[in-house]
Request: fold
Amino acid sequence: MVVGYARVSTREQSLDLQIEALNYHGVERIVTEIGSGIKPRANLTSLLSELQAGDSLVIWRLDRLGRTASELLELSHDLLDRRIVLISLKDGIDSSTATGRFLLGVLALVAEMERDVLLERTKAGIQAARHAGRYGGRPPINISRIQNATDLYLHSDLPVREICNRLCISRSSFYKYLAIYGIPPKRHLNC
Reply:
């Protein structure tokens, strides 16, 4: 079976161009989807689970299947392993040919480079932040705010929610500091 897949990111965009190209290629069935490439694509996932060895998946362009080279590479390897042909009309890729498989190999190299560049940028950003005196994570809470919070907690009938709101700290941080100072949590009905 030859199945086409078309996707646009928003409802304002049109699937017409992709559908026309897929029909011109002679697909037997077209699965469409509207949604960003970031979000899970339920129709694509369902389609991929239906495809069997000997089937062909035809797309207008590779970016319709995924946002990153590594995502595309993983999907193309899965299709190759299952003996499903991947055809990208605009990119000139047909995994049933030696040239198509070569282009998918080039895609693998691009994916590896993409991962390496991302790691380098992350390391450079962390190093630049450290040189500027910034370190990851939230800044520590002022100890006087913690003492005020524990005093209010121990010596008033205010609910934890109100104490945390007054002192601008989260409930999870408040309970974490209670545990550090060995103060057992009280049971408030209105916290």
Notes: The helical segments are 16-25, 42-50, 69-81, 98-131, 143-155, 160-167, 171-180.
